[in-house]
Amino acid sequence: MHELSIVASIVDTVTESAAAYEGARVLEVRLRVGALASVVVESLEFCWGIATEGTPLAGAKLVVKTLPVVMHCATCGDVELEGVQSFRCPTCGVLCGDLRQGRELEIESIEIDEMDQVEETA
Amino acid sequence: MTTRIVELRRGILKKNDELAAGLRDRYTGAGVLVLNLVSSPGTGKTAFLERTLTELRKRGARVAALVGDLETDNDARRLASSGAPVRQINTHGICHLDAEMITKHLDGWELADLDYLFIENVGNLVCPSSYDLGEKIRVALLSVTEGEDKPLKYPTLFNSADAAVITKMDIAEPCGFDRELALRNINEIRPGIRIFETSAKTGAGMEEWLEYLAEERAERTR
After folding, report:
1. What is the Cα–Cα distance from B155 to B152, expressed in whole angstroms?
2. DSSP reduced 3-state for A74
3. 3-state class of A38 per DSSP?
4. What is the pLDDT of residues B152-193, one digit of tens each?
5. Each residue of B37-85: pLDDT tens digit?
6. Are strands B63-69 and B116-120 parallel, antiparallel or unpaired?
7. 3-class DSSP assignment, residue A2
8. Which residues pair with A84 in a beta bridge?
9. Are the beta carbons of B13 and A9 separated by less than 8 Å?
10. For residue B9, is it within any domain?
11. Was domain A3-68+101-121 assigned CATH 3.40.50.300?
12. Facing residue for B12 by CB, picked from A86, A106, A112
């Protein structure tokens, strides 16, 4: 359980990126989280309000896109798994060791409001 | 209101990943094989590592260890009895080791003077899976007392491992350990992984483990 430090890391990165748009408010932060990322989305959401308070992210919405595990099956190509309890190809049943997707833990994009910037610089 | 979408595509643990990449370069440059040992508390990481360090030293290998715990230096003192240089990392509540802690605790050690460096992670099967320490081999350990379905319960960790070690095999029978089921479950989560069945007490399985280390060192540090 290190979701609070993950949220703190998001706050740092987004604050840094948003600084390029002086005075802008962050409205939304979009994450991509793989099924094998060891992150509990509910815990991220639980920490979000507290950890963003007093930062440029205060009040921003957190949107998490979860990504299923994708394995490469020698016979069937890239296949999506239903869960993380078995790494067998859902089509042919063969065990696959070649992971193509599922460990992602990244900030995809942020949505910012530039209006404040214009007002403040005017 | 004018809104704008800014694409970031940035790894949340990027800072750790960058430090880990730097460590990996250092390890490779120094020709030292680095392993990260991960398990639940009580699996027997320290006993297994103690035996590994002692056996490797007997064979003339140059070894060292970093050991992570929330508090106390008990494990470091235990491991130091092998004669190998050992440093304790106290995380004071943090549930995993990260690349920054490793970087800091390697200070003053000449990596080129080592053949093997072992990192014993904090006992935890969840968080350490997210933190790359620059290791070449991540070892997931499981003891016969823990239940054969541990790999199914903690797939994120077992799936990220390069090798699996079953510990305490000397008490497998009284524990009613279902060996076949455990092997099947590990393989279901991490197909094709090398699995070692060991006992730090009797030394069973250690020979095969040490051979594997020697092979990996020859191959991966080349």
Report:
1. 5
2. coil
3. coil
4. 999 999 999 999 999 999 999 999 999 999 999 999 999 999
5. 999 999 999 999 999 999 999 999 999 999 999 999 999 999 999 999 9
6. parallel
7. coil
8. none
9. yes
10. no
11. no
12. A106
CA B212, B134, B12: angle at the middle one, nearest 5? 140
SS3 category, A18: helix
Between CA B120 and CA B73 the distance in angstroms is 13
Does residue B121 belong to any structural domain of this protein? yes
Q: Which residues of B195-208 are buried (b: 16+ CB within 10 A; e: fewer)?
A: bbbbbbeeeebbee
Q: What is the dihedral of CA B33, B132, A17, A45, to 10 degrees?
A: 180
Torsions phi, psi for A66 (to 5 deg):
-90, 140
Residue B151 main-chain phi, psi, to 5 deg? -60, -30
* Residues forming beta bridges with residue A77, ordered by sequence position: A73
| Chain B interface includes A71 (CB < 8 A) | no
Provide the CA B177 distance to its chain's centre, in angstroms: 23
Shortest distance, CA B60 to any CA of chain A (angstroms): 35
pTM assigned to the model: 0.91
CA angle A59, A65, A68 (to 5 degrees): 155
- Find where tokens 């072992």 sit: B118
Evaluate whether residue B5 is within a structural domain.
no
- What count of other Cβ atoms lies within 10 Å of the Cβ of residue B68? 29
Residue B1 within a domain: no
pLDDT, one tens digit per residue, over B113-122 is 999 999 999 9
Radius of gyration of chain B (CA): 18
Q: Does B149 touch chain A (CB under 8 A)?
A: no
Q: What is each CA distance from B63 to B56, B60, B217, in whole angstroms?
A: 7, 9, 12
CATH of the domain at B212: 3.40.50.300
- Searching chain A, which residue's CA lies closest to the CA of residue B153? A85
CA distance B188 to B193: 10
